User: What shape does this take?
Amino acid sequence: MTRIGLLSDTHGFLDPQFFTHFAQCDEIWHAGDIGSLEIIDQLRAFKPLRAVYGNIDNAQIAQECPEHQRFELEGLSVWMTHIGGMPPRYNPIVRPSLLLNPPDIFVCGHSHILKVTRDLKMNNLLFINPGACGKHGFHRVRTGIRFALDAGRITHMEVLELGSR
Assistant: This one.
């Protein structure tokens, strides 16, 4: 079993609560709009990090984090990108690849809208957007997600509410 702490859209602000909420996690995933190299450094010092850059991130962050990450973990295929859209209106840039080879889990950020849903038309993929955990944007509550992957199953999904923006 691999326990995941998922966040997005920090926009340069990393709430210290994440270190408590993600203490039992094996990996941290960041779905873009990180905002500073310091956040990458803090997360990497804490736990293994998988991250993608977002549209507000500079060239230094883009050198540290790819635009897309596709990987296998615990028997599940995962694709993480920042601007992915949402079911059924996926970003036109990623949609052809999603149709050709849908992952089991599709993670994105950007919208600042917390959403976890299955897309039955896309091979039942699990779409996850953890919302936004930074202080910039139109969201009212800062959020993140914690879950586990275990031998081809997704378990223990929890939404973390961190307070007002």
